[in-house]
Design brief:
The chain contains twelve helices and twelve strands. It is of the alpha/beta class. It has an eight-stranded mixed sheet with strand order 6-7-8-3-9-10-12-11, sandwiched between helices. Strands 2-1-4-5 form a four-stranded antiparallel sheet, covered by helices on one side. α8 links the parallel β7 and β8. α5 packs across α7. It starts with 7 loop residues before the first strand and ends in a 5-residue tail after the last strand. The structure holds iron/sulfur cluster (SF4). Iron/sulfur cluster (SF4) binds next to loops.
Length: 332
């Protein structure tokens, strides 16, 4: 049987931010593999390091970000040959020309941050294809119409003439997804893609991403603070806390056999479909640790009802619970 190779392999990634009041250690040694055709979720509260990790993949962290350690190997085909590059070693120009928007595409929370309000939908859809795939305007227009149809937008020819403000929030996010898929990427990164939308539209956009992922066979990294979303979409789940992955497993492991007290807390906070206040979703008592300081022992110890003496003195390693299921907790 042919050996499966990950499309993306992150090892020991550590990222900090230099602030006027000291260094913030946002990501503290993250490992992650993403295979073709699979959806890997990263779940955690805001400030857990999930968005910083994926923005580092794309080379779009804030100017005060410092990569302290790590590699991010990305595997793709170029001119018929398989290539493996460390994304952290590529220049900005190489990232722009070879990777961003072409082989790795990203969908953000707010479609208006990705769309240019002064340009028509058609122009925004065709620009990337003209640049990366060297399509003629006529061919790019044709493919743009097909893409709009694929993401469920009616009358695509007419919609191409619209500006973003003429579309609803849900339609704008569909357009962003169409743009992200326009150059046939190997990896799609979705950073809270439904959080800004109302609940019924959220469900439709999630279903759309899931359908497209299965149809196109691409790898997806899905970032969310909402475990309920993950249940529908992910094959594998990384639960992130204070810059580390504290539990990893299949969706079934995390939902039916979770092993980390933080994951238990997140599962207790899964919102119902009629949840009105999205900000109140996570209700684990206490606050995450101060990311300026070195963390001694388990980062979750001050919020954990099961904390023992060892949790204050030693950092829990990733204990193997079962095949492909790990948890950083001394209960195991
Ligand atoms: Fe709680 Fe200790 Fe497990 Fe950390 S290691 S989650 S403090 S029991």
């Amino acid at each position: 049987m042919e050996k499966r190779e990950p499309v993306l392999s992150m090892r020991d990634l550590a990222v900090s931010f230099q602030a006027s009041f000291g260094k913030i250690r946002a990501v503290r040694g993250v490992n992650m593999d993403v295979y073709p055709g699979e959806t890997v979720a990263i779940v955690g509260e805001s400030g857990s390091g999930k968005s910083v990790s994926v923005k580092t993949i794309m080379g779009i962290t804030a100017p005060n970000a410092v990569i302290e350690s790590g590699t991010i190997k990305f595997r793709f085909k170029e001119n018929g040959k398989e290539q493996v590059v460390d994304l952290l070693k590529l220049s900005k120009k190489e990232m722009q020309h070879r990777i961003k928007g072409k082989r790795i595409a990203m969908v953000f929370q707010d479609p208006m941050t990705s769309l240019d309000p002064t340009m028509t939908i058609g122009r925004q859809l065709t620009e990337g294809m003209r640049y990366h795939l060297h399509l003629s305007q006529a061919d790019a227009d044709k493919r743009a119409e097909e893409l709009l149809e694929m993401v469920g937008i009616e009358s695509p020819k007419e919609r191409m003439k619209n500006y973003p403000h003429q579309l609803s929030g849900g339609m704008r996010q569909r357009v962003v997804i169409a743009i992200a898929l326009s150059c046939n990427p190997d990896l799609l990164i979705c950073d809270e893609p439904t959080t800004a939308l109302d609940v019924t539209i959220q469900a439709r956009i999630l279903q759309l991403i899931l359908n497209l992922q299965k149809k196109l066979g691409i790898a997806v990294i899905f970032i969310t603070h909402n475990l309920g979303v993950v249940a529908k979409i992910a094959d594998y789940v990384n639960v992130m806390y204070a810059g580390k992955i504290i539990e990893y497993g299949t969706s079934d492991n995390i939902f039916y056999d979770p092993k980390h007290p933080y994951t238990w807390g997140l599962l207790g906070s899964i919102p119902q479909a009629d949840q009105k206040n999205k900000e109140a979703l996570i209700s684990i008592k206490g606050t995450p640790p101060d990311l300026h300081a070195e963390i001694t022992g388990c980062p979750f110890k001050h919020r954990c009802s099961y904390a023992m003496a060892v949790c204050h003195e030693h950092r829990p390693p990733a204990f193997e619970i079962g095949e492909g299921h790990t948890a950083r907790c001394f209960l195991h």
